[in-house]
Specification:
Strand order of the largest sheet: 1-2
Distance between the termini: 33 Å
Shape: globular
Number of helices: 6
Largest sheet: 2 strands, antiparallel
Number of strands: 2
């Protein structure tokens, strides 16, 4: 594998594919009465006993400051609640309310079908090949991250 291989066209296409997905997904999520971040929280908490904000932030990739506002707005809509964390007396567990779980059960399958309609445009071969290539790309970045010095990498300085 040559390091001289031009990677910018592939990177550009990957970003454009993600942006196209985000536009397609966000438009449908808005029709469901949610923001993309609210849908992300709803989908992450659905069918779970809840999780602390740190775990929720890591699973949704929403920053702490943004996550607090999203959860606050969902709390105002009675979609989530904050329960005391039994493992940490100062912490909280964010859980879906009954209304939140009911909304999850309604919108999650609907959105899955919506996204699936776009994927139906790919042949079976293209679909399987894309999954393999995206998996390889993710692994390449994860391995590169693990090998770099500093936070998140193996070569941390003492």
């Amino acid at each position: 594998m040559s390091s001289a291989r031009p990677h910018l066209p592939l990177l550009r296409e990957l970003v454009r594919a993600y942006q196209a997905f985000e536009r397609y997904s966000a438009a449908h999520v808005a029709q469901l009465g949610l923001t993309p971040a609210q849908f992300d929280v709803l989908a992450t908490l659905g069918n779970t006993p809840g999780m602390n904000p740190k775990t929720l932030g890591a699973k949704t990739l929403i920053t702490k400051g943004t996550l607090t506002g999203v959860v606050d707005r969902m709390l105002a809509k009675d979609l989530v609640r904050r329960d005391p964390d039994p493992q940490d007396g100062r912490g909280q567990i964010v859980c879906l309310t009954r209304a939140g779980q009911a909304l999850f059960e309604q919108v999650f399958p609907a959105h899955g079908k919506h996204v699936g309609r776009a994927f139906e445009r790919l042949s079976d071969v293209d679909f399987e090949q894309a999954a393999r290539v995206l998996h390889a790309i993710r692994q390449a970045f994860e391995q590169a991250q693990a090998e770099q010095p500093g936070p998140g990498g193996l070569h941390k300085e003492s």
